[in-house]
Design goal:
heterodimer; A: alpha/beta; Peroxisomal Thiolase, Chain A, domain 1; two-stranded antiparallel sheet; 14 helices; B: about 110 residues; mainly beta; OB fold (Dihydrolipoamide Acetyltransferase, E2P); 2 domains; five-stranded mixed β-barrel; three-stranded antiparallel beta sheet; about 0% helix; globular
Chain lengths: ~375, ~110
Amino acid sequence: MRDIVVVGAAETKFGKLESSFRDIAVEAANAAMADAGIDRQQIEAMYLGTFSPGTFIHQEHPAPLVASMLGLAHVPTTRTENACASGSSAFLQGLMAIGSGMYDTVLVVGAEKMTSTPIEETTQILAEAADWESETLAGATFPSLFALMARRHMHEFGTTRAHLSAVAIKNHHNAFRNPYAQFHREITEADINNSAMIADPLTLYDCSPVTDGAAAVVISTRERARNLAGQPVKVLGFGQASDSLSLFRREDMTCLVSARKASERAYKMAGIGPSDVSFAEVHDCFTIAEIVATEDLGFFDRGQGGPAALAGETALNGRIPVNPSGGLKGKGHPVGATGVSQVVESVFQLRGTAGERQVASRDIGLTHNVGGSGATCVVTILGQAA
Amino acid sequence: MAVEIGASLAGYRSASGEITIPVPGSTLEHVPADAEPRVFAGGGKVLTYSIVHVSTTRFKDKAPYALAIVELDEGARLMAIVDGGTAANLAIDGRVRYAHSDQYGHHFGID
């Protein structure tokens, strides 16, 4: 496989936006191409990660729509859908297209417009990414699926309310320093304890919000990037894995085997181990998900993710900063954009341009993007292009 | 052929070995030709649970309700509602027993 670099990266502000789906996708894509210093004529293909535009904004077949608005006449366009891992799945398609030699420069966009839909409908749309026939028809929602994992994690490992709260407090703290984030408010343990119960034991502050947003990256070869203005970041490794769509069919409900397998593959490709990672952007759709992720990725032993978060080991100045962007919890979770946004944040961190949320050690960044309750996981590892 | 639901908890084992206990109204009620029908006695234990306060539109009139992953004594698992279940009276490994099935899926009671 050829050496691959991310040479342009950008995103919109996340939150409740007035702009349309097409406008935010175009805004992020144009900004990424400008960051790369590339003209649109050099884009050979476009991949769009988006989860459910057909239900959120009644628009299926969105990839050629976005491409035509970008002036990418007649380039091949493909939309990827892998629930909340739709964005990272688009990124992987781009990596494989460049790595295989099929194309030299491609554009990857992730976008979702969610806030124009009533919340109960949104809950139902998201729940459709679970096993509709065996879980959603039986009463499951996404918060409840992660609540089921949290309850079991608490039972097996002694994970506590304070551990979950430490994740939410940290990610709001980081988001406060991120101008792209949906939330710019620090929160306290009292805020969490006094917030509405969503699916016991998860409260409102354990849950990522409903968000509009888009993110985009330009991927190219190392050779071509030498002639571009954008500061390149090297793709060191990537991996994807799947698991049963139904949580109840999994032997172990306190870890995501898909994340373990995807990260094993990514670490092997990069030739590194968990202790080599400088920082990580992980899929904290719920606070328990970040705790489980830090265990699945090998940063901490099983059952130690919660105590590590409480001890500050995953803070901006901790041993392994996790979600310096604020994560899905604080930055926001526009489903199809999230996986691409994790890459964008990693590029900012590796370049040293992340401002107030810049991590100190910036050799290697890892992204971890989960679809469903863990049926899909994509892990990528990025490093300095040197 | 369709699974009869109501009198007992019924399902089938597909050729791949997966046990399915179909929720009423789901397309999984149609039993594949090569599947073996199974009937379950109804006893089981709670593997994990949650009290759902914010539901989908379909379950709007039910919330809050207790959702559990139940492992039946025969080893099969399913997602189900535990009628009368609360954060105070539910426990992991607690015994439950199948009660009935309706448009909200399968219902168990605390045993």
